[in-house]
Q: What sequence folds into this?
């Protein structure tokens, strides 16, 4: 699985989680700012997770 495909799956997963949180949280659910924060945190975690894939060390 390529890093781009992993990133695409992660973005879809974040969208699904945001939708589920709106159903689970009482009251108004998740507003725009909270959704944006969840998206950005997940995006950065995903980026730094897939960033080193395929990198070889100097000894190799």
A:
């Amino acid at each position: 699985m390529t890093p781009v495909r992993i990133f695409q799956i992660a973005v879809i997963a974040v969208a699904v989680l945001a939708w589920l949180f709106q159903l689970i949280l009482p009251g108004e659910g998740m507003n725009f700012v909270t959704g944006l924060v969840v998206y950005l945190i997940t995006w950065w975690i995903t980026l730094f997770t897939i960033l080193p894939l395929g990198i070889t060390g100097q000894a190799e």
Remarks:
- The CA atoms of residues 50 and 56 lie 14 Å apart.
- The chain has a mean pLDDT of 80.
- Residues 10-53 form one domain.
- Helices lie at 3-24, 32-50.
